[in-house]
Write a structure and sequence with these properties.
The protein is an alpha/beta fold. It has one domain: Hypothetical Protein Ychn, Chain: A. The chain has a 5-stranded parallel beta sheet with strand order 4-3-2-1-5. Strand 1, helix 1 and strand 2 form a beta-alpha-beta unit. The longest helix is centred in the C-terminal third of the chain and has 10 residues. It is globular and about 30 Å long. The two termini are 13 Å apart.
């Protein structure tokens, strides 16, 4: 399953999102959701422990001036790769 976080993690039920993540899932943060990928945020340790693949849209990271503050556990991708994730994952959940 592909989980996409669009809103700030502080405006979302992140506890529920993290409870639903499984190791074979893909997780993508975009728009204000990229805040979840910041180093030293309160959600980082738990999302890393989910063992799912973690992605963040690089254009959204750059637009917010956060490039130097993104955890190395997240892979920066473009929107073309995002499309390939949607093709790969027939089931999707948007947060």
């Amino acid at each position: 399953m592909l989980h996409t976080l669009i809103q700030s993690p502080f405006k979302t039920n992140v506890s529920l999102l993290l409870d639903m993540l499984e190791s074979q899932d893909d997780f993508l943060a975009l728009q204000d959701g990229v805040l979840i990928a910041l180093t030293d945020n309160i959600f980082l340790k738990r999302i890393i422990s989910s063992d799912c693949a973690l992605y963040v849209i690089k254009e959204d990271v750059y637009a917010r001036g956060l490039y130097n503050h993104i955890s190395s556990h997240f892979r920066l991708i473009d929107y073309i790769y995002f499309v390939s994730l949607t093709v790969k994952n027939k089931q999707q959940m948007t947060w």
